[in-house]
Amino acid sequence: MNEKERGDSLLEVVISTVIMGIIGVLMVSSIAVARPFADKMSLVGQTVQNLNTISESIDLQPFTPCSSTNPEPYAIAHPVPTLQASGNSFAIITSDLPPVMANFGTQTYHYSARLSVQNPSGSVTWAVEPLLPNGLSLNPNTGVISGSTNQAVTESYSFTARDNQQTATKSIMLTSALVKVLINPNASWTTCDSATAVTISSATGNGTTATYNYSGGPLNTNSVVTIWGSSNPAFDGSMLPVSNVTSSTFTIDSSAVGASDGGFVNLSSVVNTQQVLVSTIVHGSPLHKVIAKAAA
């Protein structure tokens, strides 16, 4: 092989090495870009699954009329966190956390869930990154997550447990979901806390009609009302036309009257049909699930 041929071969080797290096860099870059995207899609998929589970638990609950004082009559099921053993070493064995019901209006929902480890050596301390939703906190000495939040958000949190000798870290997803009950479809779907309502102070009956003393809202003889509250158990969930009305009383044609104090009136034209909206936010994007409920 002459000098020229050896030079050409060396150049080919250099060029091949450079090309392979470029291809390697591109592959590593592609993997680096693809992995965060895959992680995001995985979190979105888990969030959709969580929303479906929450929605199913609400769908199984009996239809309950909502009101401005009780805008969310349905609760999120609160299963016990799953524990999965991981060999014989020190490890966090909590695999999932129950969803959090987010506060809405005047409603506050308290949350509590405990993280667990296996094979600790002495006392265990806890930490979490990033910060939990506003209003929730992790007790560093007990591993209990507690509090209440008005944030609807899904995030994967990195929990760290430390004992006297070892450290264990695990990523666990937590979903906080907002539940809104919508009523009055004939006009427009309205949240229960926004529906017009008046307060009942007393009720009387003569065996044919029932008359209620009320305050706080306009009524007329075309109104269709639903009466609820401890004072009116006979009327919970029933639509009743108003036959007579004054500035402080209204009358319905009914022989049944509850106790003589307390209660509320919902002025929505349709109260036996609801849409229950369950929502959260993942990676800045809202996700919703709608459940249709109707009185039996």
Would you mind describing this structure in some detail?
The protein is of the alpha+beta class and 296 residues long. It has one helix at residues 3-59, and strands at residues 91-92, 100-101, 111-114, 117-118, 125-129, 136-138, 144-147, 153-162, 167-183, 190-191, 197-205, 210-215, 224-228, 240-245, 249-252, 264-266, 273-282, 285-294. Among the domains are: 75-177, Sandwich (Immunoglobulin-like), CATH 2.60.40.10; 196-267, Elongation Factor Tu (Ef-tu), domain 3, CATH 2.40.30. Strands 2, 5, 8, 9, 10, 17 and 18 form a seven-stranded mixed beta sheet that branches. The mean pLDDT is 81.
Write the layout of secondary structure elements.
Blueprint: H1 3-59, E1 91-92, E2 100-101, E3 111-114, E4 117-118, E5 125-129, E6 136-138, E7 144-147, E8 153-162, E9 167-183, E10 190-191, E11 197-205, E12 210-215, E13 224-228, E14 240-245, E15 249-252, E16 264-266, E17 273-282, E18 285-294
Parallel strand pairs: 2-9
Antiparallel strand pairs: 1-4, 3-7, 5-8, 6-7, 8-9, 9-10, 9-17, 11-12, 11-16, 12-15, 13-14, 13-16, 14-15, 17-18
Beta strands, count: 18
Shape: elongated
- Just name the CATH architecture of the domain at 75-177: Sandwich
CATH class of the domain at 75-177 reads Mainly Beta
Which percent range describes the beta-strand content? 35-45%
Radius of gyration: 30 Å
What order do the SSEs take from the amino end to the carboxyl end, as H and E?
HEEEEEEEEEEEEEEEEEE
Low-confidence stretches: none
CATH topology of the domain at 75-177: Immunoglobulin-like
